[in-house]
């Protein structure tokens, strides 16, 4: 995988202008710091970011020092943690949750020599702030294909965290893929309003199962939804989210989306070391290796597995886009014309369900 | 045989010694815990308790202590009034949220008008929001005799849902590209609550907290309402004979604690937090319960306890980042503080006696 090309394509694709210049010279040693929204043992989102941090250490050894802080609340506390890190000599700080956006930019203004990297956000108010994200919705299309073919009740479910564009992308992509292989499929969405709260996530899964849902996808960080599905004794399946969650193989976890941050973290810290660091905005997906599809287990029939893998490979090859028209919005208005694919701007600001999904987005 | 014996009157010595002993015990047992985790316990304790005040970055962290202690003190004082009267408002977290939501709604409703009355009106609205939310358990208690502990606690979760609705719906920033969260008050000066002296961490919330502590102290020591509160807690029957209306007392204590929690929320959302977001609340309302007890339900004690608690947060973060301690270890450390406080507190009302003697005659 070639990161340089990726950087270039992503930059072109998003057609964003970058203000920052390259760091004049390299550094002998980099202190890389990470701010996590959950504990590193959450088995999902934060776990994967920490794997990325460990990969940086593995790659550069004594040339880097890693520091991290777990379970930092999004808001005023984040600003203090970031300031402490900057004061403490961090050269580059990765803030790994959407809610750190304002804090990241506020602290970046005070420490122009420190590089800030904010995951999943869109604000780059200062030349030392870069953003990075992954096209998780591509993985959702693979899961939706499996869900549509595997459901016996024709009811599939999705546990949403917050109705932000990243999550809306995932829900719509999942539904469209399921609908394509099973026109009778119905999707129920439950909002958990948390990134990490195993009890709430389990309740959400329970509510879906009670409604007759037999395939559950989750956009929250813990393994609780899979643990809940496991109690149904094979009748309910689900997917690993953010991390492989292999403990639940072969069922209920029949596949997974793995966030692979390691290459990005290694690249950015490496760039800082050799003096080629520049401000950037990265949004890579399956093709770039940032979104990996975890093993599809034998709990899935061979033809389903083949169909899902075809979706994955077509997306990787660039021959298929999960949002290809004609697609209407939930209210019946036109979104994408026949054959058109969704522009990135629409995806980054998505605040609607596509036609066929029942229920309201919390307003 | 060692047994516990009730003191005829609470021990004044232990009343004041308890927090100190609890802090020392927390340091010792916490130190053992850190040592077992392979860290140098002295270094960890120093990082938590010493470095934020006197260490290399104290110039920044001292201000942060005030930022963190302000809302804790403000909420804890309100709670302490109720706790003294035997009225258990456990839902300050919800009142804190509602104060922020109502106050922020008022401010954002007139965006981008510039008028120097906007912020004061928002402050009143914040207090009103917290007060109104506390009135629900208060009225349910006085009218239907429900349990205020349960009702106020449950309302926290209702408030969180309203907060989520506000962040993703009615207060969502129209220029936020569809992302949740309100406008940031830092870019709306008429409604903002900035630092009064740069770098000091002091904003209107901190000022209000310190003033409230003094007022509450005067209320409890000089005013008839304060006397009634104390009497109702110590001897409810005597209070009734004394003409203290339990209904009015519940309304007063719940209302005051709700309004103060609402104020804390308003100052936080317009100041350090900057915006209404889904995760705006970070547990000040619950931590304030510990602060209230750590401060012996005494307003001046609560000021000290608020700073101590802030120290464990700010210092705990330092220890976590710089020494690689897991966040959970810091939380255990904070939990220990309440645990030892309650455990040692037994000595205020009880004493240890050797032997099975029945007599408890004489001495205090």
Description:
The complex is a heterodimer of chains A (363) and B (364). Chain A is an alpha/beta fold. Chain A is built from eleven helices and 14 strands. Chain A has helices at residues 3-14, 45-60, 76-87, 101-110, 136-150, 165-181, 198-210, 224-230, 262-274, 302-317, 344-348, and strands at 30-35, 64-69, 92-95, 115-119, 129-134, 155-160, 186-191, 215-218, 237-240, 253-259, 281-284, 291-294, 327-328, 334-336. In chain A, a hairpin with a 5-residue loop joins strand 13 (327-328) and strand 14. Chain A is globular, with a radius of gyration of 20 Å. Chain A starts with a helix and ends in a 15-residue tail after the last helix. With 364 residues, chain B is an all-alpha fold. Chain B has one domain: ABC transporter involved in vitamin B12 uptake, BtuC (Orthogonal Bundle), CATH 1.10.3470. Chain B is built from 14 helices and two strands; from the N terminus they run E-H-H-H-H-H-H-H-H-H-H-H-H-H-H-E. In chain B, helix 2 crosses helix 13 (299-323) and helix 4 crosses helix 9 (224-234). The model of chain B is unreliable at 359-364 (pLDDT under 50). Classes of the chains: A alpha/beta (363), B mainly alpha (364). The interface between A and B is large, with 37 and 39 residues.
CATH topology of the largest domain in chain A: Rossmann fold
Can you list the strand order of the major beta sheet of chain B?
1-2
Please name the CATH architecture of the largest domain in chain A.
3-Layer(aba) Sandwich
What structural class should be given to the helix and strand makeup of chain A? alpha/beta
Total count of domains of chain B: 1
Radius of gyration of chain B: 22 Å
Main pleated-sheet profile of chain A: 6 strands, parallel
Order of helices and strands of chain B: EHHHHHHHHHHHHHHE
The interface involving the most residues is between:
A-B, 37 and 39 residues
Strand line-up of the largest beta sheet of chain A: 2-1-3-4-5-11
Overall geometry of chain B comes to: globular
Helical fraction of chain A equals 25-40%
Low-confidence stretches of chain A: 1-23
Describe the main β-sheet of chain B briefly: 2 strands, antiparallel
Keywords (chain B): Cell membrane, Membrane, Transmembrane, Transmembrane helix
Membrane topology (chain B): Multi-pass membrane protein
Protein name (chain B): Sugar ABC transporter permease
Subcellular location (chain B): Cell membrane
